[in-house]
Design goal:
By secondary structure, the protein is α/β, with parallel strands linked by helices. The protein is 61% helix and 8% strand. Helix 13 runs antiparallel to helix 14. Belongs to the TRAFAC class TrmE-Era-EngA-EngB-Septin-like GTPase superfamily. FeoB GTPase (TC 9.A.8) family.
Amino acid sequence: MKKSPKIALIGNPNAGKSSLFNSLTGLRQKTGNFPGVTMDKLIGKWNLETGTEAEILDLPGIYSIYPKSVDEQVVINILANPQHPDYPDMAIVVADASNLKRNLLLFSQVRDLGIPTVLALNMIDVAENSGIVINSFKLAKELNVEVAEVNAKKGIGLNGLRLAVNKTLEQRFNSNDSLPVEYSPELIDEIKEQYGDTDDYHALLWLSEHDNLKQFNTEQRVGFDKLQEKYGWNSKKFQAQETVSRYAVLNEIVDGCLHQIPVEDEPVKTWTDRLDKVFLHQFWGYFVFLGILFVMFQAVFTWAAYPQDLIDNGVAWLNQYLKDTLPESQLVNLLTDGLIAGIGGVVVFVPQIVFLFLFISLLEETGYMSRVMFIMDKLMRRFGLNGKSVVPLISGVACAVPAIMSTRSIGSWKDRLITIMVTPLMSCSARLPIYTVLIALVVPEKSTLFGIFSLQGVALFGLYLLGFGMAILSAWILKVVLKAKERSYFIMELPSYKGPRFKHIMISLLNSTKAFVFEAGKIIVAISIVLWVMASYGPGNAMQEAEQKVKTENPTLTGADLENKIAAQKLESSYAGHFGKVLEPAIKPLGYDWKIGIALLTSFAAREVFVGTMSTIYSLGGEVDDENTTVMNRMRAEINPETGKPMYDAALGFSLMIFYAFAMQCMSTLATTYRETKSWRYPAIQLVYMTTLAYLSAFIVYQLLK
């Protein structure tokens, strides 16, 4: 097999780069981090020809090679450094055919860096609908590169793109012979002499962006500063002149290759125009957005109920089958009461997480998410954020880790920091299993609002709105505390509405769900084993004494009732029980007992562990006759020893929900905040303020409702 060429997908935001990546690679994708950077990169395999597979790298969207935000800096650190591990053998620049002039600026810069380049004209159908006809053959000749017309969403034109890529890899075009900008040859010679032989455009890029390029150390950056001073070099002035010069050349080329069919004097209203009259309306825009969110959470709760019940019953059946089939031993107990009980407690909520990711993918695919950013910008600015903060906040509904990393597109450091600090308040998918269990315990299943909407779905929607409300309130407080005078601007292009391509959605859905299950699974397996050991063993003869105590105090008790009493007493006497008892005084004002205390503590590794922990605790604790009973039924059967009433009443249930809505219980999120801010100060502040907020809010709710 030939060596796998490395191909970078590069393009402006909304040019269809991600759609093309999905069309080329299908399910053969993996996620990693860029070397030295905590930022996800997508890598996939694409069959170029028999025996040759290309490695496709999907880079963040950029407008030019002069970065304005952190994610753009990632791209330039690759393209500016031929020694970088991700430096491509060639590039496919994806351009929006309906806005060709603007998209060709980036193309010309990438080509002039000496990287063999293919131009992929995407959205040809959109261009034709606007009366734009492009002569691709003439354009290829003028630009001296291969040009392929594609429709990334429908997977059209991929064979033509494959031929163009193979031809480019064979011929290795070198297109930076003459740059459309004036510069000093003496300056270039000095750069090459001091920093190594390279082409002229790389040398100019190094000089302009050396402060943003990680390949240079402090001493080398000082050297670039001295060269700028010696030759009177002004980076901003050079970049402006270069951009003007490039557009002058590109405009002439495009005018000769593009034909605009005359349209009527009265422009035809497109679907995008019609929909935007409603979706971007200063009142109805917000109303529609809230309506979409409401339907989304109704669906998450109601549609997922059927597959959820199947999984729930299946896990319970498997657990009981293994107990009945395998010989009784501690290893079998570990497998059933530890691993399967813990993992099953999370796997059962996969359907809800799938529906959540599905709705988010649909919003992104159709182009509606950009409208949300636009209409929310005015509101967000009052709280110290901007429209670009909406994407991390909404992404936080899925997971706070990638959401915090997506703040790199926010140019203002102050806006970015505030967004990072408040994003974990958005209710992520890890909280969903907890909400589901607790809502099912305290909100009647058949109760409805107006006879249509499930009250359980309304409660879930309320929790997500509560998280958003607290996030923007916290942002406003941080805006007052942080006295930075930096002003931020919100500029974005609204893409046209597009029908979702379900193949792409399914790929995204599979990758997101798989990542959630396996990432959560690692933590749950480890914690389930540790918890089972702590709950199965105790100090000294504590476990034997617990059994003897129950038999002495209940001489008439026999059978399952006796076994349940013994199991509950053993759990209380175990290491886990002792640990929970130490925590109990601190959490007693919230209505929590030592069992909930154990779950709270384990949840600080990851929130979703709460359900797995409760599954393990109640599996070991007995208390009900039916071994096949699921965690929800076991919690429902739990009796408060002080009142003799059900433990999980409205006061305790809503108190726990509020605690989990606000508490910072995710080590991965804290680690990501540290990596993004380069300081432990901010994750420490996050942990303290969110935990305090959670405790006080849960206390107030419990005291009001008890």
